[in-house]
Amino acid sequence: MKVDCVGGGPAGLYLSILLKLQDPSHDITVHERNAEGSTYGWGVTYWRGLLDRLHAHDPESARAIADNSVSWSEGVARVRDLATRRPGDEGFGIGRHRLLELLAARARSLGVRLEYEHEIDPAAPLPGADLVVASDGVHSALRTHHAAHFGSELRPGRNHYIWLGTTKVFDAFTFAFVETDHGWIWAYGYRFGPDRSTCVVECAPDTFTGLGLDRADEAESLALLEKLFADTLDGHTLIGRSPADGSSPWLNFRTLTNRTWHRDNLVLLGDAAHTTHYSIGAGTTLALEDALALAGALREHTDLPRALARYEEERKQALLPLQSAARYSAQWYENLPRYIHLPPEHMFALLGQRHSPLLPYVPPQLYYRLDKAAGQLEALRRFKRWLGPKVARTVHARTLTSRE
Question: How far apart are CA 68 and CA 45, in angstroms?
Answer without folding.
Answer: 12
